[in-house]
């Protein structure tokens, strides 16, 4: 395009260099230096697009019109991509070239050093490119991948965590983390064990930095912070997924961690050497050791969860992940307990999810948490029946209450609490509450005393404001609420009350009612169901003689 | 085998055979089985005792001579079965009834002697009364010679003459004794006298003769018996006669009764008499209560009179009862009425043409002549008579048409319609009867009107005017006025007239009177909304309601599927119309109130379709709800209408259940952003409360809404909240309207969303105070409705505290004066809640499973139980059992009989076969004997063995 602008058929200098480099890498090594410097100038140009200079090979035009600008941009991007591609290929080729790697001659050493320098300048150039705000998003993504790819080029035993850290920080704190980018990151880079390992490490450091305010985020920019946390969470999720695959890859197709591919070539070779030589454990790089990986993982999650500014949805999501996907992979899950105990103080779903985490800890990790049912009791409020996530919430509640080891007076308090909720609840909520009451009484037959109507009526001995279910005197009470629900306006509720009209102590005569019938119901569903029910009978009021006016 | 059988048969034959030897031997020497028997000394269990017919206990078991019984059976069979068997090949029988023929003990000679004796006796008998007249004919060849008939000797008559002339009843045989049988010719002075006497007594005379003839041998000869036909004819004639008599009597009775009835009716028409009778009755009752003794002393006549009076009054009351018409009949009748009125209206609107069509022949006077002349000119005088008839019919109907409205209101009882119609028709008949009654029945014709007209008529009339004609004239005169006016007058709708009638009727008339006569009576059901709105625009509410009514009546749903379909389509249109009217500002309350009953009636006619339409509306509302918006004005109106139309007592109503759900969700989830929202919410609570109160159910959402609303009350604060009452500006306080003027519910329905002024009104402190008050009112109402609910305290506790807080807040603010009623209301509420808490009853056995009752059997003991007796209480069942048992026994008996019959017949057949065999053998033996004789004879040399050869 640039050629046509110039009016000559001569191809641009950079293209010739690129062609030459690809044709014969060793002979045309100088072209590499040229390309890198050209790239650097290109990047400079792009990042300071406000004052473009005419390039030496006339790629840029003097014309300032916007469409030409756009053309320019595309052109520049194309060029950058091409150059990056060529240079990357060249460097990779060099690495595979045995003659250069192994020869000890001064020339080759010098060449190697020169190559190293070139690589460094190439990397810095790329970093500059993707860090710059002026770079278009597409180009940035390309360069980010280029940076990651360039990790391969690093020589030396150590993994070049610097680049990875740079990229992750960039991704987290910037605004360009898109679904696609995340997907590519997950599928193409995190599958490498070393990337995952160092990624976890850098994420842990990143979240600590965010917490202490050391991260390069504007201090008072709350939304940027939240954004960063969200990005970090997304990355963490992706990493959790892959790490989960690594660690408990019980399936036959999954290979054990030690045989995972790694990104950096040198490491792989070192491993080969280790196997061939001493064969000691020390030879295994740290990122291939399961314990180390777990430790990194635990650290990353802990430091992430300790962030005090987690937005609600992130917190909810992370808490949801905890019991099934995170806790099993952690080295010391008990460390979560203080985080969870703090979270339990939240209302609504967060509280119950935290409680779920605690539940898992209590059940399988020997945590002592005496206030568990008290917390649960206080979480049951009328508002929970109206929220969107009530299905999840009440399924969890059902899980917690399914144990028969709770004392009867506590269960009775729960029963009374549910009954009170049912009074205030919408029809589906009332049905749900009654299901709970029914199941609880079935699990704890001594609570059927609530249905027997002892005492002389009057004031209800049950104290609904008491926070401790054990102190609420629920066993002295009766379930007047159920009788009230018999005159509920919705016929299903009316009919459901009949369920209680049986001898509740004979447990073999009936089964529990499945919660799933009511847990997903909503007003709209009930309405649509009622409004589309087959028409059978439609009662019309008899006309009144002394009818008052309508309005 | 055969031999054995033969032997057996022989034995049997000996036993059963009727050969004299066998039986005689048996009789002479009875078998030991006959006289020897063992009497059982003890009753043996399981062995049935044979009871003799109710004899003493000692005779309970009697010996039954089995052999004798068997013998009896055999004999019976010999008499019946055997005879039949012997006759089995004969087609007929010959019965010999000659004297002594079947008596085997007589021989021929004795028989002959006996026969002769009998003959002689018979001849002697015949002549017992025959008088000896010298002739020695013993057999009385001229037996009736001395007898005469009609003065002639009987001998002179020949047979046919006798039969033709005389008719006597058959039993004349006895007549011989009554003394007329032997009247002789010479015993009377003159022949004539005798003759007359004989004519008089000819029956008797003839009877004598006949009696003689009866005992005679030749019976068929001079016997003048009546034939069957004659007898029958006579019978018929007689019965006819009596029937006639009876009928006549009945007729007389009836005319008498009719007369009585007429007079009675006349009496009863007089109100005074009725009143008097009623008074009398009351008095009598009083007397009966006070002095019973005195009444006893009343004469019987008086008592009878009273009784009759009472009966008569009772009868009077019952008269005029009519069978209740069915729905279809009512609908049809109403429709017909409307159609006829419509016809008439059309005729009247085209008044002049109608006039020309009138038949001039029936109009007298100059007017008639003029008409006739015009008719001759135009030659357009066809069909007049028919129309005139029709019109007269209409006229009769129009008088009854007044009560059309209340006739078909669902609320009205149908008797009224029937009664009034009947009275109408009776008026009509009186009208056509004559003039006198016409004037007296001014109630329906309008006195002043008819009088005025009559004067005019008199002036115009020439010659004798028939009453009929005058009547017609009056009608024609009506037509002279312009069409509409005349119609109104015809329908009896005159402003002044209404006062004369009963209150209800007057009301009805008033509404009808407002109707423009341009409204047709028969209106086709509109099929599009455009048609309908065209019909309705520009009418006042009463007219609109009337139009709806007419549409409904002229297309009754109960008549025909087509009408039902149309009514369904129309229902949708009507609902649309209603909700459109609801949208108008200001709200046409009056119009809507008048439309509602019609909608109600139509809903009752097509309930399922109404439900479908209502559901569609609810769906529409639901969509709005999902957008998070409060309902619009017309939605509120429609909801209110649904709550009015449908039955709240059906627990699972296709419309009300989803409607309540909708309202609940609105109340629970939709945020209150402005005063208008608040007002709408409160309106929804009002609707919910109405439903709640009527169905006795709880809608917790409405309580929650009230609680949340009242929780937001902040007095004297200037936050932006909905119920934050601004601090009062002292200066402007006086200018504001009085508090009572603000009605939240009315404001909702009157509001116009686009109106900025109204938006301000919803933001005013007055409005806010009024809505707080309304919320309080609703809360109290709800508490009142839910008193019986056991958890009412828990339900209302938050609301009560919110109310208390709100009342407290407002009362300390600068608006305390305006909101004076709030604090007492809150206190009342709290007191009521406390009261409910204390008065709550124990749950009791509400959730106790009801134990299934075990079936219990009480033992019952029979005092004197008899083993074989059937103690079944079910009479029918025991009867059936007995019959079945009888049937079985009969069957067994019949089988046994048949078996015995077979056995008997087999015996007989065996015996016969043996007999033939024996005979054959005998013959054979005989022949053989002969042959042997011959042989021996031959051997002995022809001496028949007489010669004894001496061979020795």
UniProtKB/TrEMBL annotation, chain A:
<comment type="similarity">
    <text>Belongs to the CBF/MAK21 family.</text>
</comment>
<protein>
    <submittedName>
        <fullName>Nucleolar complex protein 4</fullName>
    </submittedName>
</protein>
<feature type="domain" description="CCAAT-binding factor">
    <location>
        <begin position="352"/>
        <end position="496"/>
    </location>
</feature>
<feature type="region of interest" description="Disordered">
    <location>
        <begin position="47"/>
        <end position="71"/>
    </location>
</feature>
<dbReference type="InterPro" id="IPR005612">
    <property type="entry name" value="CCAAT-binding_factor"/>
</dbReference>
<dbReference type="GO" id="GO:0030692">
    <property type="term" value="C:Noc4p-Nop14p complex"/>
</dbReference>
<dbReference type="GO" id="GO:0042254">
    <property type="term" value="P:ribosome biogenesis"/>
</dbReference>
<dbReference type="GO" id="GO:0032040">
    <property type="term" value="C:small-subunit processome"/>
</dbReference>
<feature type="compositionally biased region" description="Basic and acidic residues">
    <location>
        <begin position="47"/>
        <end position="67"/>
    </location>
</feature>
<dbReference type="Pfam" id="PF03914">
    <property type="entry name" value="CBF"/>
</dbReference>
<dbReference type="InterPro" id="IPR027193">
    <property type="entry name" value="Noc4"/>
</dbReference>
From TrEMBL, chain B:
<feature type="compositionally biased region" description="Acidic residues">
    <location>
        <begin position="400"/>
        <end position="418"/>
    </location>
</feature>
<dbReference type="GO" id="GO:0030490">
    <property type="term" value="P:maturation of SSU-rRNA"/>
</dbReference>
<keyword id="KW-0539">Nucleus</keyword>
<feature type="compositionally biased region" description="Basic and acidic residues">
    <location>
        <begin position="150"/>
        <end position="166"/>
    </location>
</feature>
<feature type="region of interest" description="Disordered">
    <location>
        <begin position="929"/>
        <end position="952"/>
    </location>
</feature>
<feature type="compositionally biased region" description="Acidic residues">
    <location>
        <begin position="430"/>
        <end position="468"/>
    </location>
</feature>
<feature type="region of interest" description="Disordered">
    <location>
        <begin position="486"/>
        <end position="505"/>
    </location>
</feature>
<feature type="compositionally biased region" description="Basic residues">
    <location>
        <begin position="1"/>
        <end position="13"/>
    </location>
</feature>
<comment type="function">
    <text>Involved in nucleolar processing of pre-18S ribosomal RNA. Has a role in the nuclear export of 40S pre-ribosomal subunit to the cytoplasm.</text>
</comment>
<keyword id="KW-0690">Ribosome biogenesis</keyword>
<feature type="region of interest" description="Disordered">
    <location>
        <begin position="901"/>
        <end position="920"/>
    </location>
</feature>
<dbReference type="Pfam" id="PF04147">
    <property type="entry name" value="Nop14"/>
</dbReference>
<protein>
    <submittedName>
        <fullName>Nucleolar protein 14</fullName>
    </submittedName>
</protein>
<dbReference type="GO" id="GO:0030692">
    <property type="term" value="C:Noc4p-Nop14p complex"/>
</dbReference>
<feature type="compositionally biased region" description="Low complexity">
    <location>
        <begin position="419"/>
        <end position="429"/>
    </location>
</feature>
<keyword id="KW-0698">rRNA processing</keyword>
<feature type="region of interest" description="Disordered">
    <location>
        <begin position="1"/>
        <end position="61"/>
    </location>
</feature>
<comment type="similarity">
    <text>Belongs to the NOP14 family.</text>
</comment>
<feature type="region of interest" description="Disordered">
    <location>
        <begin position="124"/>
        <end position="231"/>
    </location>
</feature>
<dbReference type="InterPro" id="IPR007276">
    <property type="entry name" value="Nop14"/>
</dbReference>
<dbReference type="GO" id="GO:0032040">
    <property type="term" value="C:small-subunit processome"/>
</dbReference>
<feature type="region of interest" description="Disordered">
    <location>
        <begin position="346"/>
        <end position="478"/>
    </location>
</feature>
């Amino acid at each position: 395009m640039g050629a046509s602008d110039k009016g000559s058929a001569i191809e641009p200098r950079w293209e010739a260099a690129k062609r030459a480099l690809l044709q014969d890498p060793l002979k045309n090594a100088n072209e590499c230096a040229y390309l890198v410097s050209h790239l650097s100038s290109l990047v400079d140009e792009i990042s300071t697009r406000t004052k473009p200079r005419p390039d030496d090979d006339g790629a840029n035009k003097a014309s300032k019109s916007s469409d030409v600008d756009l053309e320019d941009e595309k052109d520049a991007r194309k060029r950058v991509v091409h150059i990056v591609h060529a240079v990357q290929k060249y460097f990779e080729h060099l690495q595979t070239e045995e003659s250069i790697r192994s020869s000890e001659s001064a020339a080759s050493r010098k060449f190697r050093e020169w190559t190293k320098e070139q690589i460094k300048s190439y990397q810095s150039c790329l970093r500059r490119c993707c860090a710059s705000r002026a770079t278009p998003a597409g180009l940035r993504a390309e360069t980010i991948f280029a940076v990651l790819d360039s990790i391969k080029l690093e020589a030396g035993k150590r993994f070049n965590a610097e680049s990875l850290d740079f990229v992750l920080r960039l991704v987290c704190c910037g605004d360009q983390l898109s679904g696609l980018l995340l997907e590519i990151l997950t599928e193409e880079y995190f599958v490498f064990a070393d990337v995952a390992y160092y990624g976890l490490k850098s994420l842990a450091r990143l979240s600590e930095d965010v917490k202490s305010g050391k991260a390069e985020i504007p201090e008072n920019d709350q939304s940027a912070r939240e954004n960063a946390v969200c990005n970090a969470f997304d990355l963490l999720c992706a990493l959790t997924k892959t790490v989960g695959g690594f660690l408990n890859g019980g399936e036959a197709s999954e290979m054990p961690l030690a045989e995972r591919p790694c990104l950096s070539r040198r490491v792989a070779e070192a491993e080969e050497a280790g196997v061939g030589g001493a064969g000691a454990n020390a030879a295994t790089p740290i990122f291939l050791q399961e314990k180390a990986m777990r430790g990194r993982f635990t650290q990353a999650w802990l430091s992430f969860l300790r962030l005090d500014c987690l937005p609600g949805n992130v917190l909810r999501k992370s808490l949801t992940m905890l019991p099934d996907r995170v806790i099993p992979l952690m080295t010391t899950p008990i460390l979560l307990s203080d985080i969870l105990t703090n979270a339990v103080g939240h209302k609504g779903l967060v509280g119950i999810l935290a409680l779920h985490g605690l539940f898992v800890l209590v059940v399988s990790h020997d945590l002592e948490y005496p206030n568990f049912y008290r917390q649960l009791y206080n979480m049951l409020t009328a508002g929970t029946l109206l929220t969107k996530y009530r299905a999840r919430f009440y399924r969890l509640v059902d899980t917690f209450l399914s144990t028969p080891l709770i004392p009867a007076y506590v269960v009775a308090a729960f029963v009374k609490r549910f009954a009170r909720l049912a009074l205030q609840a919408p029809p589906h909520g009332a049905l749900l509450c009654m299901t709970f009451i029914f199941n609880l009484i079935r699990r704890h037959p001594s609570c059927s005393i609530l249905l027997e109507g002892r005492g002389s009526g009057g004031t209800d001995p049950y104290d609904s404001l008491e926070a401790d279910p054990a102190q609420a005197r629920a066993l002295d009470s009766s379930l007047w609420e159920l009788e009230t629900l018999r005159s509920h306006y919705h016929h299903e509720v009316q009919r459901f009350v009949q369920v209680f009209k049986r001898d509740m102590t004979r447990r073999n005569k009936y089964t529990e009612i499945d919660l799933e019938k009511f847990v997903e119901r909503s007003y709209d569903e009930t309405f649509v169901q009622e409004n589309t029910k087959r028409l059978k009978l439609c009662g019309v009021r008899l006309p009144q003689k002394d009818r008052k006016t309508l309005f | 085998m055969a031999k054995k059988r033969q032997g057996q048969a022989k034995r049997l034959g000996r036993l059963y055979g009727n050969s004299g030897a066998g039986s005689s031997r048996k009789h002479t020497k009875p078998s030991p089985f006959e006289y020897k028997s063992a009497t059982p000394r003890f009753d043996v269990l399981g062995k049935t005792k044979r009871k003799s017919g109710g004899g003493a206990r000692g005779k309970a078991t009697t010996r039954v001579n089995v052999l004798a019984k068997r013998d009896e059976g055999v004999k019976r069979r010999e008499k019946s079965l055997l005879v039949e068997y012997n006759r089995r090949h004969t087609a007929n029988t010959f019965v010999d009834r000659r004297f002594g023929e079947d008596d085997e003990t007589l021989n021929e000679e004795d028989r002959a002697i006996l026969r002769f004796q009998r003959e002689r006796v018979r001849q002697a008998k015949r002549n017992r009364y025959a008088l000896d007249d010298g002739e020695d004919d013993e057999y009385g060849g001229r037996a009736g010679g001395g007898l005469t008939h009609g003065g002639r000797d009987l001998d002179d008559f020949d047979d046919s003459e006798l039969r033709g002339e005389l008719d006597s009843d058959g039993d004349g045989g006895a007549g011989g004794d009554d003394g007329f049988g032997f009247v002789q010719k010479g015993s009377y002075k003159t022949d004539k006298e005798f003759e007359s006497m004989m004519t008089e007594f000819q029956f008797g005379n003839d009877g004598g003769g006949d009696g003689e003839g009866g005992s005679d041998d030749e019976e068929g000869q001079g016997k003048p018996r009546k034939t069957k036909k004659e007898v029958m004819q006579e019978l018929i004639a007689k019965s006819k006669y009596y029937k006639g008599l009876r009928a006549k009597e009945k007729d007389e009775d009836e005319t008498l009764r009719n007369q009585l009835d007429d007079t009675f009716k006349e009496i009863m028409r007089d109100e005074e008499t009725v009143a008097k009778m009623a008074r009398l009755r009351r008095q009598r009752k009083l007397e009966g209560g006070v002095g019973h003794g005195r009444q006893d002393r009343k004469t019987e006549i008086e008592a009878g009179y009273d009784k009759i009076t009472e009966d008569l009054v009772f009868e009077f009351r019952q008269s005029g009862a009519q069978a209740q018409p069915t729905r279809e009949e009512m609908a049809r009748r109403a429709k017909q009425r409307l159609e006829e009125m419509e016809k008439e209206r059309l005729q009247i609107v085209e008044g002049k043409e109608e006039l020309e069509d009138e038949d001039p022949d029936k109009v007298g006077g100059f007017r008639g002549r003029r008409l006739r002349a015009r008719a001759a000119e135009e030659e357009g005088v066809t069909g007049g008579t028919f129309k005139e008839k029709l019109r007269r019919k209409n006229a009769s109907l129009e008088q009854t048409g007044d009560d059309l409205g209340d006739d078909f209101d669902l609320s009205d009882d149908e008797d009224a319609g029937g009664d009034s119609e009947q009275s109408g028709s009776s008026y009509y008949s009186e009208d056509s009867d004559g003039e006198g009654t016409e004037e007296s029945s001014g109630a329906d014709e309008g006195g002043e009107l008819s009088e005025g007209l009559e004067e005019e008529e008199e002036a115009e009339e020439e010659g004798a005017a028939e009453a009929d004609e005058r009547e017609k004239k009056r009608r024609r005169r009506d037509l002279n006025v312009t069409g509409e006016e005349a119609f109104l007058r015809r329908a009896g709708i005159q402003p002044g007239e209404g006062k004369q009638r009963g209150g209800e009727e007057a009301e009805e008339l008033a509404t009808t009177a407002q109707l423009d006569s341009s409204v047709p009576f028969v209106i086709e059901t509109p099929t599009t909304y455009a048609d309908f709105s065209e019909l309705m625009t520009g009418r006042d509410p009463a007219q609109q309601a009337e139009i709806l009514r007419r549409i409904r009546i002229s297309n009754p749903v109960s008549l025909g599927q087509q009408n039902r379909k149309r009514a369904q389509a129309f229902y949708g249109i009507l609902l649309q119309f209603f909700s459109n009217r609801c949208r108008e500002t200001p709200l046409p309350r009056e119009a809507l109130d008048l439309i509602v009953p019609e909608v109600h009636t139509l809903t009752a006619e097509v309930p399922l379709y109404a439900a479908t339409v209502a559901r569609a509306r609810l769906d529409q509302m639901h969509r709005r709800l999902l957008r998070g918006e409060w309902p619009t004005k017309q939605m509120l109106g429609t909801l209110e209408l649904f709550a009015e139309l449908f039955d709240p007592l059906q627990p699972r109503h296709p419309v009300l259940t989803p409607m309540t759900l909708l309202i609940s969700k609105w109340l629970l989830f939709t945020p209150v952003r402005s005063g208008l929202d608040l007002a709408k919410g409160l309106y929804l609570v009002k609707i919910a409360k109405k439903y709640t109160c009527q169905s006795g159910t709880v809608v917790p959402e409405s309580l929650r809404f009230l609680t949340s609303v009242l929780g937001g009350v902040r007095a004297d604060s200037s936050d932006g909240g909905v119920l934050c009452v601004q601090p009062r500006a002292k200066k402007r306080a006086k200018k504001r309207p009085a508090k009572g003027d603000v009605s939240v519910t009315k404001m909702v329905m009157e509001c116009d969303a686009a109106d900025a002024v109204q938006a301000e009104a919803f933001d005013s402190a007055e409005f806010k105070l009024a809505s707080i008050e309304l919320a309080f009112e609703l809360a109290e109402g709800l508490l009142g409705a839910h008193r019986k609910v056991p958890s009412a305290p828990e339900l209302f506790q938050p609301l009560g505290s919110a109310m208390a807080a709100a009342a407290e807040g407002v009362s300390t603010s600068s608006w305390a004066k305006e909101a004076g009623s709030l604090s007492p209301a809150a206190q009342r509420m709290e007191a009521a809640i406390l009261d409910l808490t204390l008065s709550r009853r124990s749950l009791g056995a509400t959730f106790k499973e009801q134990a299934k009752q075990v079936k219990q059997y009480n033992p019952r003991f029979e005092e004197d139980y008899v083993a074989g007796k059937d103690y079944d209480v079910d009479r029918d069942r025991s009867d059936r059992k007995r019959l079945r048992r009888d049937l079985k026994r009969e069957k067994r008996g019949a089988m046994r009989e048949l078996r015995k019959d077979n056995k008997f017949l087999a015996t007989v057949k065996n015996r016969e076969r043996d007999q033939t065999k024996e005979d054959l053998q005998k013959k054979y033996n005989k022949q053989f004997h002969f042959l042997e004789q011959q042989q021996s004879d031959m051997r002995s040399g022809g001496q028949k063995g007489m010669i004894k050869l001496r061979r020795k």
